[in-house]
Design brief:
By secondary structure, the protein is an all-alpha fold. Helix content is about 75%, strand content about 0%. It is built from 14 helices and no strands. The longest helix is centred in the first third of the chain and has 44 residues, at about 5-45. The N and C termini lie far apart (about 50 Å). Keywords: Cell membrane, Membrane, Transmembrane, Transmembrane helix, Transport.
């Protein structure tokens, strides 16, 4: 009897210590991850306010000798960042519109509608995820040149839509699995057709999923460099990533302050979009993990 008492007495204490150690480890790891993410942004922001001599002659983590907020206006005007942002928007948003429209409709057809061959069709879309975009750039370049659209933004729009459509269809199909089919069966009994069931019932029910998929695809497309570099042979059509790659000052010398100011405009702009829509993204991600 006496040998069992210490076990009952000290076991909860050992469990509490183990739990406290586990929590401390998690907090330390989270702190390290936050520092890895935040410190480069702080350094980038400080560098964007420095002059060239300040950047080259002083320590990387030193504060700017003079806080040159004019670097941002220089990047926007002299560096043509405004033009590059506009070109990116003109390439990204039409691609997103096509992706979400086609992906949502395909997900509805593959998961809600019952027809022969839908599982095989889904496998075909999944196979598209395994095709690297690098393999199709040269054939697409030849096709776009022969079609006479190589000097426009259409090659970017078409390539982004085709390359990202398999992922969009797969994600929307996953989200549609959480939608109860009884809703559509009841709508059919009430006389609703396929189009009405799609627009009036399914789209409102997966709106958070559409927003989530749209943001995921937005970041993929906005941060693309390879496709944009391949199909934009005119500086007036360059996207933000190509513009940052070719960012040079007068006489070809790199102006580091305006360069990092342009990078800050790109990075913090997309970060603000994510922070603004963060809650809806979380709802969309968790919505696809629960089957109704």
């Amino acid at each position: 009897m006496s040998t069992g008492t210490p076990t009952r007495t000290y076991a909860p204490a050992r469990a509490r210590r183990r739990l406290g150690l586990g929590r401390l480890t998690v907090r330390v790891l989270l702190t390290v991850l936050i520092l890895i993410e935040v410190l480069p942004m702080i350094w980038m922001f400080l560098t964007s306010l420095k002059s060239n001599s300040d950047y080259l002659n002083n320590s990387s983590w030193s504060l700017p000798s003079h806080w040159l907020w004019s670097n941002y206006s220089t990047a926007w005007t002299t560096g043509n960042i405004g033009l590059y942002v506009r070109n990116s928007a003109l390439a990204v948003f039409p691609s997103l519109l096509l992706l979400l429209l086609l992906g949502t409709a395909a997900g509805f057809a593959l998961q809600i509608m019952v027809w022969k061959g839908r599982n095989f069709t889904l496998l075909i879309f999944l196979a598209g995820l395994m095709v690297p975009v690098q393999m199709i750039l040269l054939p697409l370049f030849t096709i776009y040149t022969q079609a006479g659209i190589s000097g426009t933004l259409w090659p970017l729009i078409l390539t982004y839509t085709g390359a990202n459509l398999p992922l969009t269809v797969f994600m929307m199909s996953t989200f549609y699995r959480a939608v109860p089919r009884e809703m559509f069966e009841a709508a059919t009994l009430d006389g609703a057709g396929i189009l009405r069931s799609f627009w009036s019932i399914s789209v409102p029910m997966v709106r958070n999923a559409i927003l989530t998929v749209g943001l995921v695809e937005f970041f993929f497309i906005w941060n693309d460099l390879l496709v944009a570099l391949t199909f934009t042979n005119n500086q007036n059509l360059s996207t933000i990533q190509v513009g940052l790659l070719n960012f040079t000052g007068q006489f070809g010398s790199t102006q580091y302050g305006p360069l990092f100011a342009a990078i800050c405009i790109n990075v913090f702009g997309t970060l603000l979009i994510y922070l603004f829509l963060n809650q809806k993204i979380m709802k969309g991600l968790t919505g696809g993990a629960v089957k109704g």
